[in-house]
Amino acid sequence: MAITSIGHSKMKTWLKGFIKEGQYTLNGVKYKTPIYRTDITGDVITFMLYLDDSVTGTITRFELLDQDGASFDDTPDSINKKGISGLLVEFKYTLKKV
User: Fold this and answer.
1) Residue numbers of the domain that contains 37
2) pLDDT of 9
3) E strands, the chain, where?
4) The pLDDT of residue 36 is above 90
5) Span 48-73, mean pLDDT?
6) CB 83 within 8 A of CB 54
7) According to the lineage, what is the superkingdom (predicted)?
8) Contacts of the segment 92-96: beta carbons below 8 A, 24+ positions apart
9) Mean pLDDT throughout 88-93?
10) CA gap 34, 65 in Å, rounded
């Protein structure tokens, strides 16, 4: 028995509600940031974090935090962000029935 279309939609909605906020590591210090935008298109759900031009320095990690504050997903990186522009970071997930 396969998951229904309704169940599939509810899984995407659940994931959207499960992720509470983002976090990034800047110059060795962790900072929380709100989810800038969440987009659900077909089977793809995208969480976006936006760091404005006030954030400057070396960013070594981006994370999504769940409702309990635990790290749901993380992406190691090495970005030397200057204060002249913002930065948009995306976490994309595909939920498919197989």
Assistant:
1) 5-94
2) 86
3) 19-26, 29-33, 37-41, 44-51, 57-66, 71-81, 87-94
4) yes
5) 96
6) yes
7) Bacteria
8) 92/44, 92/45, 92/46, 93/15, 93/44, 93/45, 93/46, 94/43, 94/44, 95/8, 95/11, 95/12, 95/15, 95/43, 95/45, 96/43
9) 96
10) 10
- Domains contained in the chain, number: 1
What is the reported pLDDT for 47?
98
- Could you tell me if 55 and 85 are in contact, meaning their C-beta atoms sit under 8 angstroms apart? no
Give the pair of three-digit tokens for residue 76: 């190691």
Q: Which helix (H) or strand (E) holds 98?
A: none
Contact call for residues 75 and 29 (beta carbons, < 8 A): no
Taken as a whole, the chain contains a residue count of 98
